[in-house]
């Protein structure tokens, strides 16, 4: 069965050990994540979407995240950049990106999804996911950080839109809670499957 993949906030400030908001253990996920993405095949994967937490120095102090975390992922800095190489994904698999200014990729109205290779193609976020569902895609795999923040909200929004979600535990890390706890505490009885932390393919 074909699936869609969402890769949440695999940016320097979260993934690198010296990032502005480094998630413990995330740097060790970079190579496994890259290998996992490179192994995706177009017969089983209809596309990959990368989310980017995106902030600006001038406005961060007024953002919801400022009450919890120091400034991070400032657009245009190394901390904002993706640590994963999109070019290693099979070119037959479409790759997309979306920039968001809050934890929840669904919260802000008017966000657009664009071609990750800079081809200029864009689509409103809700139209994009409605189109996936209309084409018969019902399964989404989510990887990335942090399991108890941006990953958690990505999963919630996908389930609310009718998708069944799978999260490989070995390809995510949380700040205060790991994905297994998030699944039990926040998604009991809902369409979320957490795979074991063993290597995944």
Describe this structure in words.
- The protein is an alpha/beta fold and 201 residues long.
- It has one domain (3-195): Rossmann fold, CATH 3.40.50.850.
- Helix content is 21%, strand content 23%.
- The chain is built from five helices and nine strands.
- The protein has helices spanning 12-15, 30-38, 125-134, 150-160, 179-186; strands spanning 3-8, 45-53, 95-100, 112-115, 122-124, 139-145, 164-168, 172-173, 192-195.
- Strands 1, 2, 3, 4, 5, 6, 7, 8 and 9 form a nine-stranded mixed beta sheet that branches.
- Strand 6 (139-145), helix 4 and strand 7 form a beta-alpha-beta unit.
- The radius of gyration is 16 Å and the shape is globular.
- The two termini are 15 Å apart.
- The model has no long low-confidence stretch (mean pLDDT 95).
Give the CATH level 1 class.
Answer: Alpha Beta
Strand content: 15-25%
**Shape summary:** globular
Classify the oligomer: single chain
Mean pLDDT over the residues: 95
Low-pLDDT stretches:
none
CATH superfamily: Isochorismatase-like
- Summarize the biggest pleated sheet: 9 strands, mixed
Would you give the CATH topology? Rossmann fold
**Helix-strand pattern, N to C?**
EHHEEEEHEHEEHE
Termini, distance in Å?
A: 15 Å
What share of the residues lie within helices? 10-25%
Structural class: alpha/beta
Which value, in Å, is the CA radius of gyration? 16 Å
For the record, the CATH architecture stands as 3-Layer(aba) Sandwich
Number of domains: 1
The tally of helices reads: 5
Strand element count: 9
